[in-house]
Amino acid sequence: MMVNASPPGTKALVDIAGVSKSFRSRHSTVTALGDVSMLVQEGEFVVLLGPSGCGKTTLLRSVAGLEKPDRGRIEIAGRTVFDSAQKIAVPPENRGLSMVFQSYALWPHMTVFDNIAYPLRNRKRPDVKGHVGRALEMVRCGELASRYPGQLSGGQQQRVALARALASGDQLILFDEPLSNVDAKVREAVRFELLNLQRELGFSALYVTHDQSEATALAHKIVVMRQGAVAQIGTPRAKLLVPSIGSMIQRRFDAPSLPYSSPSTASCGRAFARWSRTILSTRVSASVTIDLSGFVWMPRSCDR
Ligand SMILES: Nc1ncnc2c1ncn2[C@@H]1O[C@H](COP(=O)(O)OP(=O)(O)O)[C@@H](O)[C@H]1O
Ligand SMILES: [Mg+2]
């Protein structure tokens, strides 16, 4: 399957504005989200990247309606699904989205077919059989329809969970570390299929991971989270451009070589930013500008 590299639209499908959430117990309060705002455009694959405990799952669950934020507003497809001020909280099943979890969340007593058909029957969709069949073909699991989840490998179970989300036809699919339970080889294959399917079908994805290479492989846009807040937003392409732009500047301006050895670490990013600013400010004529604002500098803690 070819990747259709058409860029995502410019219309916001998900609009998260000023969302905060704390978990309180008798002895302590944990601020999981502090005033988070971000957008997912139509057809865009957005990855939430950050270390464990930084609030990724809480943000995803807030969009899904499984968590109720203390403050803020969330719109999906132009409809307010949560607003603390107006006391709006649309239940998860009415938000027009599907979720794929790390734990697959398949019903063990239902066949693969029935697992995928279940939400469609619930919503009284026509042609359930056709939808299930096509979704299973998309994830290359057509022959597994009559098996039970217990008779499948982890990779197959996750493909079935993905098929269930795809069959729903929802414009928005939320993913919470869906590949971290499958082994490395299968992970690569499913990641590749997911990338192709998203670019081909054009649904919007909000995808949580702590794995930087996964984020870079899948995302149109990476939102780096740290301690309950958005630390940076950028494109993975910008990050990949760092070494090549570096050598271009070096040749063009006869600059000293870059002050880093490995191009994948945060220190490299910071060093490059400092280095290029110095070079640009000292040697570049006024007519040459290079926009560095789109670059993603990965926090070191994401490098796992
Ligand atoms: N139900 C909960 N009760 C108490 N604390 C929670 C709950 N859910 C999440 N937290 C805390 O909120 C913070 C963010 O958690 P989470 O959103 O799961 O992070 P991530 O998905 O990035 O690992 C963590 O400190 C976590 O311990
Ligand atoms: Mg999590």
> What order do the SSEs take from the amino end to the carboxyl end, as H and E?
EEEHEEEEHHHEHEHEEHH
Strand content: 15-25%
Largest pleated sheet: 6 strands, mixed
Mean pLDDT: 83
Rounded to an integer in angstroms, the radius of gyration calculated over CA atoms is: 21 Å
Q: Ions, cofactors, ligands: which are bound? A: adenosine-5'-diphosphate, magnesium ion
| Tally of contiguous helical segments | 8
Helix content: 25-40%
Low-pLDDT residue intervals, each spanning 5 or more residues: 258-265, 284-304
Question: How many strand elements?
Answer: 11
Brief sketch in words of this structure:
The protein is an alpha/beta fold and 304 residues long. The chain contains eight helices and eleven strands. 35% of the residues lie in helices and 24% in strands.
Write the layout of secondary structure elements.
Blueprint: E1 12-24, E2 29-41, E3 45-49, H1 56-64, E4 71-76, E5 79-83, E6 88-89, E7 97-101, H2 112-122, H3 128-138, H4 154-167, E8 172-176, H5 184-201, E9 204-209, H6 212-218, E10 221-226, E11 229-234, H7 236-253, H8 266-283
Parallel strand pairs: 3-9, 3-10, 7-8, 8-9
Antiparallel strand pairs: 1-2, 1-4, 4-5, 5-6, 10-11
Bound molecules: adenosine-5'-diphosphate and magnesium ion.
What this model shows, in words?
The chain has 304 residues and is α/β, with parallel strands linked by helices. It has 8 helices and 11 strands. The strands form 2 sheets. Strands 7-8-9-3-10-11 form a 6-stranded mixed β-sheet, sandwiched between helices. The protein has a 5-stranded antiparallel β-sheet with strand order 2-1-4-5-6, with helices on one face. β10 and β11 form a beta hairpin. α2 (112-122) runs parallel beside α4 (154-167), α3 packs across α4 and α7 packs across α8 (266-283). Residues 258-265 and 284-304 have low confidence and may be disordered. The structure holds adenosine-5'-diphosphate and magnesium ion.
